[in-house]
Structure formats: structure tokens, C-alpha cells
Amino acid sequence: MPEETFVIAGASLAGAKAAETLREEGFAGRVLLVGEEIERPYERPPLSKGFLLDKEPREKAHVHEADWYDKHDVELRVGTSVASIDRGAHQVRLSTKEPVSYDRLLLATGASPRRLDVPGSKLQGIHYLRTMADSAALKQALAPGGRRVVVAGAGWIGLEAAAAAREHGNEVTVIEPEPVPLHAAMGPELGGMFADLHREHGAVLRMDEGVAGFWGAGQVSAVVTSGGAEVPADVVIVGIGVRPNSGLAEEAGLEVSDGILVDQSLRTSDPDIYAAGDVANAYHPLLGRRIRVEHWANALNGGPAAARAMLGQDVVYDQIPYFFSDQYDLGMEMSGVAAPGEYDEVVYRGDVPGREFVAFWLSGGRVVAGMNVNVWDVTGDVQALIRSGRPVDAARLADPGAPLADLV
After folding, report:
1. 154 and 86 fall within a common domain
2. Which of 119, 141, 220, 222 could form a disulfide with 125 if both were Cys (CB 3.0 to 4.6 A apart)?
3. What domain count does the chain have?
4. Domain enclosing residue 169, as ranges
5. Phi/psi-derived region of residue 323, left when phi > 0, alpha when psi is between -120 and 50, beta in every other case
6. Whether residue 284 has pLDDT greater than 90
7. Of 150-159, 186-195, 360-369, the least confident
8. Which GO terms describe its cellular component (predicted)?
9. Cα–Cα distance between 59 and 372 in angstroms, integer?
């Protein structure tokens, strides 16, 4: 029998963990891992946290040691991408023009930052944060301190970058069209807490305003808001979300809608092609609907799940969405989905003013999401509450003396 070939498009965290899992599960065929960046696979959280703050070395972000790929007979092609897919021929064509036949194909192509298309958007000094190169360039811009930094967007990336800019000693202004930071992620109450946190650390927040344009002669010197204000800027950081890199899949005729549509086994509309990570819009059996998750844990867990499914194992990928963030002296972990309209009550346990608490989002008495703020080792219990789908007693949920494990 000829050797089987599994191709992984995207040398990302999801792609690298899929390759690792294939070998761990005993797959002895050819594994080709293709990535357009010149870096070997790395994790993205340090780019807006430890690496950007100059607290973690560059090497710590990499998924594997440099020699891991050779030792495990994984062909890693950096600086290369999959340019096209011929589903009928079971073949991909690389950006080098090389054709490669595949038995199974995994698309782990990730996402790209949304760009601001406004006057002046091509000026120097406007940064987006997605790659290690982006983070290195931004760190160089922030590290001297004393700069006027404007952050467009008060989502997770924007707030983490704003915190890093302040810790480097820069003036920071955050511009956000929603009434509070993270409004879409967790609603007005907890979003207001993050607004207070950043203001207490000296950042200026301009809520209910967008970015209308930039001024500057080659180099950005000011940001023009939708309200007509001009905010001086030496450095601009744009963090307004990402778009899934689903063009390759769409050109190949796969089903695409806000990412590549996959089932609960991460299989696309083609039974020999799978997708994982930011690019996958997966049916989530626990939630009973599709969801596209852009966070680190989804790549970490989704890559291995897709690898096992590619090997023919019975896989049901139903991980509870999970995210963590560090901003100034606040550390948090969030599990579940707490978008406005998906809950009807928020219950707090602990010291909310002191920012040591757990918040629970409830819908019909059932926990749909939970966030622990400067409280640790509770994520397992929070996720168990979400997974159970059973109504809980809100009074006991709010009582720090009632063990969470008992409520499950």
C-alpha cells in the first residue's frame, strides 16, 4: 500500500498540535505542515502579553523546540502556503507551484486583522497585532515610553495592548464605538469594570466614538474621531477584530459562512477535508448551534480533535469556549459565551469592588458563562456548571461558602 499523506495548511498552534497528535496516535505516513510565516509554529497570547511587555523571551512562544519536527518526521515548510485545492484530484498546489497529493487535508489557516479603511490608514506608525513580527515592531515602538499611543478598539487585544503601552510609560487613549469595553463579549456591567480598571491606570477612554481617519505627513500624528475630535498620536494600535482566512476553502467550493463550516467532528462539506482553530465555524453539540471561537484554547484543543477525526476516530468536539487575559494587576479566565441577549441575569460571588470575584451569566436559571477575576482554580467547576445545563440556586451561587462543586 502507498504511504498516506496528511497535509496541514497553516503552521499555527492548531496545525502544530494536530501534527503532534497524529504522531502520538501512531500515524506513520507523511505529515506536511505548511505555514506562510517564516517562524516555526508559535502561540499568540504572549504577543499581546508577556512578549509585548518584554517579560518573556521570544522562544517561549514557540509550540515545539526547533528540532522537534525533524525528530518526529514532520515536514515543516515555513514561508510557504497552500495556494489552491483540487478536491477531485485530492491535491493541493503550494505557493512554490509544487503539487502535493493528500489523503486527508486540515485547514488551520487562522484569521487576519480587520483593517480600518479610512483616510490616512496607510500612514506609518499604525500597527496591527497578529504575528510575532507585528508584536516585535510594536514593542519597539512602545518600549521607549513617553509616546502618545491611541488604541482603536476596546476588545481583548486592544485592552491588553493598551495595558502594555501604559506599563511601558506611554500616554494612552482608547477609542471605542460601544458604550463600554468588551460590550459584545460580556455586556455592560463587566465591561464597565474594565473601563474603570484602565482609567485607574491612567488611560483615557473615549467611548461611543469611532475612528474616522488619521492625520500625518508620512507618519501618523493624530487620530480623527467620528465626533470630529483630533487626538494626538505617535503610535496607533488597531484592534477591531479579525476575519477568518476562509478564501482558500471558498475557492475550493467548500461551504463557508463566517469561517469554514464544519460538523461536530470538525469535518467540512468534503469528507476528506477538516478545519480547526480560528477559521472553523463548528457545530457545537452542547450549545446546539454553530460557533466560531478565536481564542487560544480552541486552537490548542481543536487541532488534536481534528487530527483524531482525520484518523477515523469518533470525535465530538464540544469544548467549552475558554479565554484568559492579564491587564495590569487583573488576571481573569472566562468560560462559556456571555454575549448580550444570551443571558438574563449576572450573579456575583466574592469581592467585586476589590476585583476578586467570580461572575456567572445565567439564562433561565442556567449558567451559560463564568468569569473568575483574580480568583484561581475554579475553571473546572465553572465549566462543569455550564456543561450540566441544570438550573442553579442563584443565592447559593453567590455564596462563597457554598462550594461550586456541590452546585454541579
Report:
1. no
2. 220
3. 3
4. 126-238
5. beta
6. yes
7. 186-195
8. cytoplasm
9. 29
